[in-house]
Amino acid sequence: MYALLLTLHSLFRWVVLAGLLLGLGRAYRGWLGRRAFTRLDNTVRHTVATLAHVQLMLGYGLYFASPLVQAFHLRDTEHAPTALFFGFQHVATMTVAIVVLTIGSALAKRRTTSEEQFRTMALWFTAALLLILLAIPWPFSPFASRPYFRF
Fold this sequence. Notes:
Keywords: Membrane, Transmembrane, Transmembrane helix. The chain is 75% helix and 0% strand. By secondary structure, it is mostly helical.
């Protein structure tokens, strides 16, 4: 189960990032280009939030199945920064990022003008993307290094 969750979580992050970049592209193009907020824009907004929630659920499943997290003790993190990253920082930052994205999606849905919808979506999704990029264990990350794809 752990290996399956790890593979799905690793691969699905690219789906989430691609969707989020698509959503941001449409949001900034619509906001700065003063376009109308269409059904497609609304579908992209909703789909990006849904993809992020699926990834978060995969991550929570992985979190509770992970032997690294099961062995995690806060008092030992001074000597094991990777344990601190996966035991606390990654899950906390990603949870906050998805909350930010969800709030932005909900607020954009409720705005009355296209400009407000695009602006809200652009700003909140950008904040979520920055948090997500910070918390991904990139191969070059000083916090915890993992390959681009885990199989």
